[in-house]
Design a protein that fits this description.
Elements (H helix, E strand, L loop, with lengths): L1 E2 L3 E3 L10 E3 L3 H5 L7 E2 H7 L1 H4 L32 H8 L3 E9 L4 E6 L3 E6 L7 E7 L2 E5 L2 H7 L9 E3 L7 E8 L12 E4 L7 H8 L7 H9 L13 E9 L5 E4 L8 E6 L3 E7 L14 E2 L6 E2 L7 E8 L25 H13 L1 H4 L10
Antiparallel strand pairs: 1-4, 2-3, 5-19, 6-16, 7-15, 7-19, 8-9, 8-13, 8-16, 10-11, 11-15, 12-13, 13-14, 17-18
Length: 373
């Protein structure tokens, strides 16, 4: 097969061998006088390191003998570090129940939580994974940013970690103030709880992997949940997987384990702003029998449907009492004052130039009205 994307230097004639290949700008390739065709064998001879499928010997990569340090660190008092005594006081304060509901299996629901409230997610009947989305109640463009939260804190979050909003807002949406599974730590498979590595299950991946159409994956549950609030599928975003244990294996592949939650386990958040939240009870239940497609998982007599592993989740919203929040205020976004390196748009520069040509007063710098039409 001939390849005509490169040109050769040191070519004496059409039949001569060449020893060096150089890439040329695209306009050279478009010039019929510059284009040449070469076989893959010729290219491989010219540059064996680049063209070889498995070049030998293998490259040696220098790795620092010193362990890497976290990429995102902050000094004490930074917005990145929660004021632990303050949030401990909030968590232990008296509270008044504002809203409570139980989310059935394989369903989704959205709800509002005012700034300064406590949001409690719990497992009333035993282990169950939930997929959580968050938006600013007044501006849904400000929504939870799982990737940056993962960088700022960790791949799995717990007490005093925060969930952050997307650019250009970049501020805490909630702070975790209590986690009954905080002691889970790291298991023998390097799994951890409350996952930010993965995202929600969805019908598109399910159809791709299994060929099945199924309407009650977490993505679909969240879509249905937010429709009454004027949002749609495009507003659903990467999630916090609550009560879910995940990790990466030795080859860097994502894995999930059965949820360690027991009846009554909980995760509590302090709302740092007015919020709209949505939660899905994962169709995989506690993930002990997870598998793509609506079939079962397991072996022999142990094979059963994932539905057998599904349980409800409970949501409670509380008002904080006792004056604990006196002096507290919502976080503001970073005060970036730049324009991302952009100047006046090219079109306006051209318009100004045309105005200056038509009106001598503009060339002299005097005020004038520019009318092009």
């Amino acid at each position: 097969m001939a390849i005509s994307v490169v040109a050769a230097s040191s070519i004496a004639d059409n039949n001569s061998d060449f020893t060096h290949i150089q890439h040329l700008p695209s306009h050279h390739c478009e010039d019929p006088d510059q284009r040449r065709s070469f076989t893959h064998t010729q290219l491989e001879i010219a540059n064996p390191t680049i063209m070889a499928t498995n070049p030998t010997p293998p490259r040696h990569f220098d790795v620092s003998p010193h362990p890497p340090v976290p990429a995102y660190t902050a000094s004490p008092g930074s917005i990145l570090n929660a004021d632990k005594p303050f949030y401990q006081k909030i968590q232990s304060s008296d509270r008044k129940l504002l809203e409570c509901f139980t989310l059935p299996v394989r369903s989704g629901k959205a709800w509002k939580a005012p700034a300064g409230s406590i949001i409690r997610l719990s497992t009333p009947e035993g282990p169950q994974v939930g997929d959580l989305n968050l938006w600013n109640l007044h501006n849904p463009r400000e929504k939870f940013w799982a990737a940056r939260t993962r960088q700022l804190h960790a791949s799995h979050v717990s007490t005093h970690d925060r969930l952050w909003s997307c650019l250009p807002y970049l501020r805490p949406m909630v702070t975790i103030i209590a986690d009954s599974l905080q002691g889970y730590g790291v298991d023998k498979w390097n799994g951890r709880c409350h996952d930010l590595l993965g995202t929600r299950c969805d019908p598109y991946v399910n159809q791709m992997l299994s060929g099945d159409d199924y309407d009650f994956h977490c993505h679909s549950n969240l879509v249905r949940a937010v429709l009454p609030f004027g949002l749609n599928e495009f507003d659903v975003h990467d999630v916090l997987n609550v009560f879910q244990v995940t990790g990466l294996d030795e080859e860097g592949r994502y894995f999930m384990e059965a949820s360690p939650a027991k009846k009554g386990d909980f995760l509590e958040f302090f709302a740092e702003q007015d919020l709209l939240l949505a939660l899905s009870t994962c169709p995989g239940g506690d993930l002990s029998m997870w598998g793509w497609g609506e079939g079962g998982a397991g072996e022999g007599r142990e094979r059963k449907s994932m539905l057998d592993c599904c349980r409800p989740l409970r949501v409670e919203v509380f008002e904080v009492l006792g004056g604990v929040l006196e002096g507290w205020k919502q976080f503001e976004s970073p005060k970036y004052g730049g324009v991302h390196g952009m100047g006046v748009p090219l079109g306006e520069k051209q318009t100004l130039s045309m105005c200056q040509e038509r009106d001598p007063k503009l060339r002299e710098g005097a005020p004038a009205t520019c009318q092009l039409y």
